[in-house]
Design goal:
The chain is α+β, with helices and mostly antiparallel strands. It is built from 17 helices and 21 strands. Strands 2, 3, 4, 5, 6 and 7 form a 6-stranded antiparallel β-sheet that branches. Strands 8-9-10-13-14-21 form a 6-stranded mixed β-sheet, with helices on both faces. Strands 1, 11, 12, 15 and 16 form a 5-stranded antiparallel β-sheet that branches. Helix 7 runs parallel beside helix 8, helix 8 runs parallel beside helix 9 and helix 11 packs across helix 15. The chain is globular. The N terminus is likely disordered.
Length: 543
């Protein structure tokens, strides 16, 4: 019976090949051949490997490696992970009122949302989550901790916390709420006549909230000279909200994005559907290297229509659409099925990735396109700003400090011993205290130069070179230079410390408000909006 079924399968395959085109024939043969090889290797490993193998784990390893070779956004969810997938994608969320990430091997609270359960319970940013409902979090992955925290609104979760500077543990119960993280955490008029709107994510009502913010500020001052839409650090979200945000500034029935894939019947066009809030007010869009997906659609569309000037750094480069399919046995595959194309016809998708990060696309791989005013723009590798600006976060020393969470850890100690002040008077002046923290905590301030020297020293020792005294001199010189480098960027570091202190006492809106005081990109945007001639020249306008 088994042989008959196998023969029938082979016969069916030959019949299929017989009615297919030569190209299809070759492709189907390659698929069939490689499936047979894969199945045979899998069978031999399970049957003959020296140690007992978990068949499910082995298969998952193979599939995970296979999808990882494509792009960072194609993922496989086996049956064992399907409940996590449903929670992440079907409405349940961590509604205890905080965000976290792993710092020094512990899940550490990095953001408290005003008025929510964690805030009411007195939990503070910087607190380490030691246990959740009695389950130890040490050594757990971020996905596992997130899974423990998630649940339906109204359910409770028990947390055991440890506060920086204290050895005692804090135990508290939180009731999960039903709230949405604000997607417009801050908007304000800068210098009275420049509207500023921070959009941090494209969740439901993002377009409406941006529109309402602009209307409110225009009502306060009908003579606004321009608006700054801040999409820095915005990793994207819902496509329809990206269209809605574009619709705040461009007219009804304007093309926003086209999705194209291998299956032509599934290609789609997306246009704006409402009357715009304001199609005339001068506009600046701020982006950086972590602006992705929906942020890139909005900034790219504004650029393609010459509706505003884009300022900042090249964006991330994610222009892909994912769909999820059931692959049997309660497993799912989320796969990339198409790409986004903005009105000029270009794709914002980065051509290459390395370790999940986009790689700079060489010029010879880029294709030129034209904006509405006939300006030249390029595809591949995200949205390039009309006015590039070097941001302090991109300075290697600053990157190292942020990557190692040194400022976050310092402020966790500092905020617990310093009372909050009026945000307008908030100022950090004790740079020596920051340097003392680095010294007292024996924080290894690791830059690329340090890493390179350590690798050289390790190789030298392995190969038997007697460089002990030389190494000592170099290490002392590096330590001396490090302090000098920190002093060199003292102002930038202190500005970052002020932003983090503001966030501890005045939430996300406080961080943004304080950050605006010394923001080079915002200052450039304000200056540009006050220079209509320069603004129009950048957009290729003849006005």
């Amino acid at each position: 019976m088994v042989m008959f079924q196998k023969s029938l399968y082979i016969l069916s395959a030959f019949l299929f090949l017989a009615i297919s085109s030569p190209t299809d024939n070759r492709r189907e043969f390659e698929i069939s051949r490689n499936l047979e090889i894969f199945a045979q290797v899998y069978k031999e490993l399970n049957g003959g490997f020296v140690d007992e193998i978990d068949p499910g784990k082995l298969m998952r390893t193979g599939i995970t490696a296979m999808v990882a070779s494509l792009d960072p956004f194609t993922n496989y969810y086996p049956e064992s992970d399907i409940e996590k997938y449903r929670i992440q994608n079907e409405g349940k969320s961590n509604n205890a009122g905080f965000d976290f990430r792993f710092i020094q091997q512990y899940a550490t609270i990095t953001e408290i949302y005003e008025g929510q359960s964690a805030d009411k319970a007195g939990i503070k940013t910087g607190d380490q989550i030691i246990a959740i409902d009695g389950k130890d979090t040490y050594g757990k992955s971020a996905e596992e901790v997130d899974f423990f925290l998630r649940g339906t609104a109204g359910s409770s979760v028990s947390l055991t916390l440890r506060r920086p500077g204290s050895t005692s543990e804090i135990k508290t119960n939180l009731v999960r709420g039903d709230f949405e993280v604000p997607n417009v955490p801050y908007f304000s008029r800068l210098e009275n006549d420049i509207a500023y709107i921070s959009l941090t994510t494209f969740t439901p009502r993002a377009g409406r909230n941006v529109s309402n913010a602009l209307r409110d500020m225009r009502q306060e001052n009908p003579d606004l000279k321009g608006v700054i839409l801040d999409l820095r650090e915005n990793g994207g979200g819902l496509l329809m909200e990206a269209i809605s945000v574009c619709n705040v500034f461009i007219p009804k029935n304007s093309l926003v994005v086209t999705t194209k894939g291998r299956i032509k019947e599934q290609d789609r066009l997306f246009n704006t559907t409402q009357d715009a809030t304001d199609t005339e007010i001068p506009l600046v869009v701020l982006i950086n290297r972590r602006s992705a997906s929906a942020s890139e659609i909005v900034s790219g569309v504004i650029q393609d229509y010459d509706r505003g000037v884009v300022i900042g750094q090249r964006s991330y480069g994610k222009g892909l659409v994912q769909n999820t399919v059931d692959v049997g046995y309660n497993a799912r595959l989320k796969l990339t099925t198409s790409k986004y194309y903005i009105p000029s016809g270009r794709s914002i998708q980065s051509v290459e990735y390395k370790n999940g990060e986009p790689v700079e696309v060489p010029d010879d791989k880029k294709v030129a396109y034209k904006t509405l005013n006939n300006r030249t723009v390029y595809d591949g590798g995200g949205v390039s700003p009309d006015l590039p600006i070097q941001h302090p976060d991109n300075i290697p020393v600053i990157q190292s400090i942020l990557r190692q969470d040194i400022i976050f850890r310092f402020v966790s100690r500092y905020a617990n011993s310093h009372k909050s002040t009026d945000i307008n008077n908030l100022k950090f002046n004790d740079f020596d205290q920051f340097l003392s923290f680095i010294r007292d905590e024996q924080i290894e301030f690791e830059t690329e130069a340090n890493k390179a020297w350590k690798e050289f020293a390790r190789k030298s020792k392995e190969e038997g070179y007697a460089l002990t005294e030389t190494q000592k001199v170099v290490v002392e010189a590096l330590e001396k230079e490090q302090k000098g480098i920190l002093e060199k960027y003292k102002t930038e570091i202190m500005n970052l410390i002020e932003k983090e202190i503001a966030a501890r006492h005045f939430y996300a809106s406080g961080r943004i408000k304080i950050g605006l005081r010394n923001d080079p990109e915002v200052k450039e945007a304000i200056g540009l909006l006050r220079q209509p001639l320069r603004y129009n020249e950048l957009l290729g306008s003849k006005q």
